[in-house]
Design brief:
Elements lengths: L1 H15 L22 H4 L44 H8 L4 H5 L5 H13 L49 H5 L11 H12 L1 H27 L7 H8 L19 H6 L14 H19 L2 H10 L1 H11 L4 H4 L8 H17 L18 E6 L5 H8 L3 H7 L20 E6 L3 H11 L6 E5 L6 H7 L4 H8 L12 E5 L13 E4 L4 E3 L2 E7 L6 H8 L3 H8 L12 E7 L10 E2 L4 E4 L3 H10 L3 E6 L6 H7 L4 H8 L12 E6 L18 E3 L13 E6 L10 H8 L8
Parallel strand pairs: 5-10
Antiparallel strand pairs: 1-2, 3-4, 6-14, 7-8, 7-9, 11-12, 13-14
Helix pairs in contact: 5-8, 7-8, 7-15, 8-11, 11-12, 12-13, 12-15, 16-17, 16-18, 19-20, 21-22, 24-25
């Protein structure tokens, strides 16, 4: 009992003072390229408020050097220095956000501090909560209150509680001005109010928000009023993003309203590598007005509409059908009624609306809001650099970029060849519109030397640059292509005008195939180089073949992910149209059978080495042979596929990779037997294509790879007949 009471006391303390690390600081921007939150993905029930991609701090602080305190002349006792994981490297290995990233919160100081406070304010589930509410929250957790227990919630929590009591005649509560969305003084709403009013961290968050809302709240309220919606829905965007227009989550949510890409496109936002209108405060607010209006029309109350905005309308509709109630405050009382995040989401918005409508009551009347955004708008054609616009406006480029965060690559999107040119609204500082229009009319866009190019599947920045007679670095600079960005097919790039074209980069014609290539005389074979983000399904769709075919033709494990740089052989119909995908025809390929002598000769030659197969001397070991030829014993184990402790029989073959042209004195070469190719059984293509499928395989091989010449010959000449 004493231990439980101690835990209760600690929790009560946390309700008043959140750890210092949660205290908010000045707002910051998450300047990552966005991808954002969709209504359809919210329906998973997990919420989509995941975020920070910033590097995590070490778990333990590094010991500081000894100061003047302590025993003179005596160093402090040494302790092991423990640091946290390298999150940047973890994301590189994971190929994107880690599980911790996806479970983390948005990279905003106020949102992070509020999230930490909620752990103390609302332990899951609320322990010992009874129907109704209590204004003095800490007293509910006094020693005389209910015990805090771990594990499942009490049985009484499995059914909805009684109707909450009416608001008592409390002078403070009665004095509050209510927002234009319905407010119910339910327990969680009151806990948030107590936090904002009584907790140092809560007051700091409220003060930071009272300052930040000045920048966008007037615009958002005006758009909401124009759409006929309650203007206090502006606080939905504050809870979503802390009014940071460029905040982005690893789950893909972006902007003031944290749209996912699919939901953003549904509501009219343009999202591609050039422009992401989720980051445009005005356009994203217009989309949010449409979305909130649709949710209200579907569910009929603003509590349910806000809950659906958080968890997804489909998930909320399922919960309503399951528990047979359309009353939000009843749903939140059921076990597994709605996600925990959504349980807190609506009360958090309502409490924030009360605070922002009653600044004097919450000690915020002395906070000076940030000035609202003021700008002029200019219509600009495609492919115009923001730097050019800044020059005509006579302001730094950053000022134009800050006014137009939706333009991701430093210019308006170029139009695809043959498509009509579009105009884009670009914001410039107030009073600068006339000079920008005049400059564009007089001086043009400075980019007349560039032409538009549409990316094909399988193309890379390097291959496109080579084909257009420029460098990869220059092409990346022109189009603001980051080192990790993957170009999707159909992307429009700007490239220098040049007569030089070339399809393949150096060594692009070298491909490696499994020892058992599959040949189909009714088809032709082409090769595809895997790019980052590719999947078997997408590649199969691009070539009009099946996923099962790709697995069979390339000896792949369907459970594993494709890695960039792999080359897949694909058998397509002879009249297949492949202009939309970058591929290598077989007649232009140098095909190497994996593990064949030609394979090793080529790849070791790239490293300036030669593969030799030696005969072991009496008394030889892997370590001794490796030492003679400059190879570590570990590398000798890897190459020869055996343990360093295995005894070598005199005369048996041992493989070395060496820079020497000939064996050392005393060593002799082992003559490898030539493998004989034998025809495999006749089978039918898994895609059901007409024609006979033949498999030419390297016959059973000795410990070392056979020379594979027959396999290589068949690869070079698919018409070559197999042995009788």
């Amino acid at each position: 009992m004493e231990r439980l009471q101690a835990r209760a006391g600690l929790l009560a303390l946390l309700l008043i003072t959140v750890p210092a690390g949660a205290a908010p600081t000045a707002g910051s921007k998450a300047a990552a390229k966005p991808a954002a939150k969709a209504a359809t993905q919210r329906s998973s029930g997990q919420g989509s408020r995941a975020v920070s991609t910033s590097k995590q701090p070490p778990r333990f602080a590094k010991p500081t050097k000894a100061t003047g305190k302590g025993t003179p002349g005596k160093a402090a006792a040494s302790e092991p220095v423990t640091t946290g994981p390298d999150m940047a490297m973890r994301r590189h290995i994971a190929g994107g956000p880690t599980e911790e990233d996806l479970r983390a919160g948005k990279n905003d100081p106020e949102l992070s501090a509020l999230r930490e406070a909620e752990v103390a304010l609302f332990p899951k589930p609320l322990p010992g909560v009874v129907p109704g509410w209590s204004w003095d929250v800490p007293r509910a957790l006094d020693q005389g209150g209910p015990e805090i227990v771990a594990g499942a919630p009490p049985a009484t929590r499995l059914v909805p509680s009684a109707e909450p009591q009416a608001v008592p005649n409390t002078p403070f509560l009665k004095s509050l001005t209510l927002p234009d969305i319905p407010v119910r003084f339910e327990e969680r709403v009151l806990r948030y109010l107590s936090f904002y009013r009584e907790s140092p961290s809560g007051r700091a968050i409220a003060r930071a928000w009272a300052k930040k809302v000045g920048r966008y709240a007037p615009m958002v309220k005006a758009e909401l009023a124009r759409a006929g919606l309650p203007t206090d829905l502006v606080w939905v965007s504050l809870i979503e993003s802390s009014h940071n227009p460029v905040i982005v989550s690893p789950a893909g949510a972006a902007g003031l309203w944290q749209f996912m890409p699919d939901a953003g496109r549904t509501y009219g936002l343009t999202i591609n590598r050039w422009i992401d209108e989720r980051l445009d405060p005005v356009r994203s607010t217009e989309a949010a007005c449409r979305y909130l209006s649709d949710l209200y029309r579907r569910f009929g109350t603003w509590e349910l509409a806000m809950a659906a905005y958080n968890m997804g309308y489909a998930g909320l509709a399922r919960a309503i059908r399951k528990y047979n109630t359309n009353e939000y405050w009843q749903l939140v009382r059921y076990e597994a009624g709605i996600p925990w995040e959504t349980t807190l989401y609506v009360p958090k918005i309502l409490a924030t609306a009360l605070v922002m409508n009653n600044k004097r009551a919450f000690g915020l009347d002395d906070v000076e809001p940030d000035p609202p955004e003021r700008f002029d708008t200019v219509l600009v054609g495609p492919g115009v650099r923001l730097e050019t616009i800044a020059r005509y406006a006579g302001v730094p480029r950053k000022e134009i970029e800050d006014l137009n965060p939706q333009f991701l690559a430093g210019r308006t999107p170029p139009a695809a060849p043959g498509s009509p040119a579009m105009s884009y609204r670009v914001r410039v500082p107030a009073g600068k519109a006339a000079s920008v229009r005049e400059g564009l009319a007089r001086g043009g866009t400075d980019d007349e030397s560039l032409e538009r190019y549409v990316v094909k599947r399988g193309e890379t920045v390097e291959s496109i640059a080579l084909a257009h007679g420029t460098t990869e670095a220059q092409l990346r600079l022109i189009n603001a292509v980051s080192a990790k960005e993957v170009l999707n097919p159909g992307t429009v790039l700007l490239v220098p005008q040049s007569e030089r074209t070339r399809e393949d980069a150096p060594d692009a014609d070298v491909v490696v195939v499994p020892p058992r290539p599959v040949l189909d005389r009714a088809r032709r074979r082409v090769f595809y180089r895997v790019q980052a983000g590719d999947s078997l399904e997408r590649i199969a769709q691009a070539f009009s073949v099946s996923r099962a075919d790709l697995l069979t033709w390339n000896a792949l494990d369907g459970r594993a992910r494709l890695q960039p740089g792999m080359t897949l052989q694909v058998l397509v119909s002879k009249n297949a149209k492949l202009s939309h995908v970058r591929h290598l025809p077989e007649e232009k390929a140098r095909v190497l059978v994996a593990g064949s002598p030609e394979f090793f000769e080529y790849f070791e030659g790239q490293n300036g080495k030669k593969r030799m197969v030696l005969r072991a001397r009496p008394g030889d070991s892997l370590a001794a042979i490796g030492k003679r030829y400059g190879m570590s014993v570990g590398y000798m184990e890897r190459v020869n596929r055996r343990s360093r402790n295995d005894a070598l029989t005199p005369g048996e073959p041992v493989v070395v990779y060496t820079e020497r042209a000939q064996p050392l004195a005393g060593d002799s070469l082992f003559r490898e037997p030539t493998a004989r190719a034998t025809p495999e059984r006749v089978a039918r293509s898994s895609s059901g294509a007409s024609g006979t499928v033949e498999s030419a395989a390297v016959a059973e091989q000795p410990t070392l790879a056979g020379d594979g010449r027959r396999g290589a010959a068949l690869l070079k000449n698919p018409r070559a007949p197999g042995p009788e």
